[in-house]
Amino acid sequence: MRIGFIGTGVMGASMVKNLLKNGYEVNVYNRTPSKAKALEEFGAHFTESIKDCVSDADIAITIVGMPEDVRECYEEILKYLKGHIAIDMTTSSPSLAKEIYHKAKELGISVLDAPVSGGDTGAKNGTLSIMVGGDLDTFNECMPVFEAMGKTINYIGETGSGQHTKMANQILIAGTIGAVAEALTYARYMNLDERKVFEAIANGAAGSWQLSNNGLKMLNHDDNPGFFIKHFIKDMKLADDEATNKNLNLEVLKTVLEEYKKLQDEGYEDLGTQALYKLYD
After folding, report:
1. Does pTM surpass 0.70?
2. Which residues pair with 85 in a beta bridge?
3. Residues noted as catalytic
4. Most buried of 67, 97, 217, 220 (most Cβ within 10 A)?
5. How far is CA 167 from the centre of its chain?
6. 3-state secondary structure of 171
């Protein structure tokens, strides 16, 4: 089976490598050609356009930046895809997922919305959590592909359900990473040894992936992006918009979103989300 994979950034490049390890043939395309071409040494086939990437592919997979990038990609994919399945793994708008699904259906193509969680570590290790919306029979057909990239794979329901689940995921992360930054700041201002505090609380009731991973990065002043601040802002805005449409006021989400916007205004948008500690410094 050949997969046309569009978007080979921090997450996509590792996902491609895992597909290759599992025996799939993979065409790769990225707007920055060097990011796709670098995957040739792992066995991927570099292409110079979306058309070339998907015209001989059985399945197209996208993981790009913003909803507008998703829309632009699918204008091309739906023209040239050889196969009958496309999977958008970008965190994007649930309403856009539905729009693309219905356009594709008219062309005999089934589109799944399947955003992921787990960051760069999950992408590298093939342990991503994948949340899927769309037709159940298409989900079942794609399960081996998902299993090559992820460990926790859940079918949620109709089109858009995957994206809504990712919104819930990002809301939870927002509150958790904000709490991690505040807890470590509290320890520092109380003149405690932050590392000893970290070791004391990391495996108790307050333990979390965010504390164990991004909390440690905060202590080490490691700002390298496993997930970009600019992309997290995009995700939180999407969640806030969906909540607003339902007259739902989510104060924790709004607070953390405003904190990250401050970091963006200070020029930190290309750092990892753990750089939130800079706001407290």
Report:
1. yes
2. 59, 110
3. 166
4. 97
5. 11
6. helix
